[in-house]
Write a structure and sequence with these properties.
It comes from Rickettsia amblyommatis (strain GAT-30V). InterPro entries: Tnp_DDE_dom. This is Transposase DDE domain-containing protein. This protein is mainly alpha-helical and 45 residues long. Helices cover 89% and strands 0% of the residues. It contains two helices and no strands. The chain is rod-shaped.
Amino acid sequence: MFSNIAKIGMSSYGWFMGFKLHIELIIKVKLWQSTLPKQIVVIYQ
């Protein structure tokens, strides 16, 4: 069942997809962190 996933994970394509996922996650977290303080201020006013 997981043999295809394991083969992809150890290939250069798997490394690329993992790197791409990591970059997307960092970008989303940074955007979320930049909007969170503004939302908290609006809630408490």
